Amino acid sequence: MNSPLLQDITVVKGVGEETAKQLYNLRIKTIKDLIEYFPFRYEDYSLKNLHDVKHEERVTIAGVIHSEPSIRYFGKTKNRLSFRLLVGNILITATFFNRAFLKKQIVIGDTITVTGKWDQHRMTLTASEMKKGEQNSNQSLSPVYSVGGKMTVKTLKKLIYQAFSQYKDVIVEVLPQYMLEKYKLLPKKVAIYKLHYPKDLQDTKLARRTIVFEELLLFQLKMQAFRKLTRDQTSGIIHQIEQGVVEEFIGQLPFPLTNAQQRVVDEILQDLQSPYRMNRLLQGDVGSGKTVVAAICMYAAIRSGYQAALMVPTEILAEQHLESLTSLLEKVGVNVALLSGSVKGKKRREKLERLLSGELHALVGTHALIQDDVHFQRLGLVITDEQHRFGVEQRRVLRDKGENPDVLFMTATPIPRTLAISVFGDMDVSIIDEMPAGRKPIETYWAKHDMLERVLGFMEKELAQGRQAYVICPLIEESDKLDVQNAIDVHTILQQHFKQYNVGLMHGRLHSTEKDEVMEAFSDNRSQILVSTTVVEVGVNVPNATFMLIYDAERFGLSQLHQLRGRVGRGEYQSYCILLADPKSEVGKERMRIMTETNDGFKLSERDLELRGPGDFFGQKQSGLPDFKLADIVHDFRALEVARQDAATLVKSDQFWQGSEFYQLRTHLEEQGVVEGEKLD
Length: 681
Known about the structure:
39% of the residues lie in helices and 18% in strands. By secondary structure, it is α/β, with parallel strands linked by helices.
């Protein structure tokens, strides 16, 4: 259990107190941390033929010095040293900036090796490094490490070499032999060595594949084992569902289910009938029909003798869900009620009595559902919508209102499959990836700020037809730091521009009752334009709103832009989204282009993940993502899928829990606190 590699870094020869502090700053605390502190890239010093080199490519070449060096000075400290170099049969100019001291080393007729950026048009190499003689091809690849403070790359390399020399023989093979053979992976000791001391790029690819797969397998193994042990230790409700009754309910819906909705319903009903407690994430793009799926599953649970609860983040959203569920469930004898902060006194007491007696079958509400005086008679299904808006503790309290009820989390934020199987690896994931027939795609356009008058003219045409519009701004008030339009200023400007219409204002500093009043006025068409920050993002349903204008759209991520766009296009009318933006960066321009090209939230979320990286995807660092040394869940997605499948197969097999070839993997689970030592024997 206590591997020598977990000893403090100070046991490595040459690591004193001061050096140890510098290593600690790099998060290198143990011998294992040091030998697994891998390069983040490699400089390729292999000699190239200039005929094969692209313009502005970094290159290493060998040549014969053909002219005396000349130096030109710029002020007191700056200078440029140039000389002619014959590379094969091509005569080029080599230039060094601020390296006048090299003049003595440049002798006509000498062979040198230089590295730098190649300018194909001027036949010039802007050099950064020079060595006497021709480069040895065996030393063509140089690892580049991330360092900081007083730690230099030279010292770090020396310490890694020392640690590896001292402790290479205690590096343990974690992966079983059959996996190494099946996936053509290197032994771990060899992989570590080749990452630090590669002969060529092929060496680094093979070594990286090995370490990446091990990291991903260990992570997925932890997820799958946690999930299995949680399921084994928690007996759920076995719902008695009459298939014919559910099919009859689906048959009388005002519209047919899409294939994706039907698939998801089947997956959830299967969970409800199993002896395990359901722990499922339901993803569906805005307007894909998650509420109908929720209604079907609630109906199935209620018909099997249980109650259902749906918790949502805001009162407006709760009221909209109540309206939808009542229209679907009331005609089949299901009593649905709303419980929120504004339900008080006698009304509240009556609802709680009906809930405890079992007369109320389904309860929709905000966090009011988890207050101490709320008691269900027989809670069997808990659904939370936009689950990331609730804390873990809030979700747990609701779950504890019943005896191991089945749990369904719903979200309209399309999370890329890449992230879903990483962050939510302990859940089953269902995806509604198909939109209902007849839904008109939202037309999206990108406009520069100097086109604002035309955009407002377009908006006026929609308002004249009786439609409504959202206007979204990044900030509430004026800021010196960010040159962006703010909600209060925009509200004032639009009141002046559209005098015949009522313009509402919504932002995060309003009290919840004020937000509700503003939103109700817009829902009832008492205000025709709603200027808002992103608080309007989740769950609002105003079918008459057909126009959305987003100021400074480049300041939002793709997923957030898509969520905002989803506030329109909910009725029978054609809807429009205008992105007002003058992005300076290529990434900003790319975001605008992607938004105008697709309405598919999942495609957008994948691109967003590629552009922003997994750490920033959720807008916060506590995303549940592990801190991998080499693996990248975006680029190593295939390896992640394979690792997940292998981990799921392993934890289900008796051989994994008993076989000697899996001892190291089981030890890892024990060290991670997923299982206790005695369970491994």
